[in-house]
Amino acid sequence: MADEEKTVKKAAPKKAATRKAAVKKAATAKPAATKKAAAAKADSTVKRLSVTLVRSRHGRLASHKACVAGLGLRRMRQTVQVIDTPENRGMINKVQYMLKVEEA
Fold it and tell me: For residues 93 and 89, what is the distance between their CA atoms, to the nearest angstrom?
């Protein structure tokens, strides 16, 4: 029994050390992500689309709900501006029957 308790006590600090390392990695990764977001916002030459949800998400396929959420839409008649990328265009095309799209 004493041997089992010792092994349990030794295993706990290893987990804590890996958690601390993961937190440090995450902390160093955040500034890079915010720099990218700030650069995208600052660049006024980026083509944007204005997307409005005009039909309800209720009763739709899960993949269609996910596309609407991926575009940043939460409620009816909400309008968001998204960057015109192939990924966003694909989501828009998948649920085009629920959206109104305009160039911003």
Answer: 6
Q: In whole angstroms, what is the distance from residue 40 CA to residue 81 CA?
A: 13
Residue 9: per-residue pLDDT:
55
pTM: 0.59
CATH of domain 48-103: 3.30.1390.20
What is each CA distance from 6 to 1, 35, 70, in whole angstroms? 9, 46, 48
Which segments within 1-104 are labelled E, that is strand?
48-53, 79-83, 99-103
Q: pLDDT per residue over 27-42, tens digit each?
A: 665 555 555 556 655 5
- Written as one letter, the residue type at 84 is D
Count the neighbouring beta carbons within 10 Å of the beta carbon of residue 57: 18
Please say if the pLDDT value at position 1 is more than 90: no
Written as six digits, the tokens of 61 are: 């396929």
Joined tokens for residue 9:
């006590």
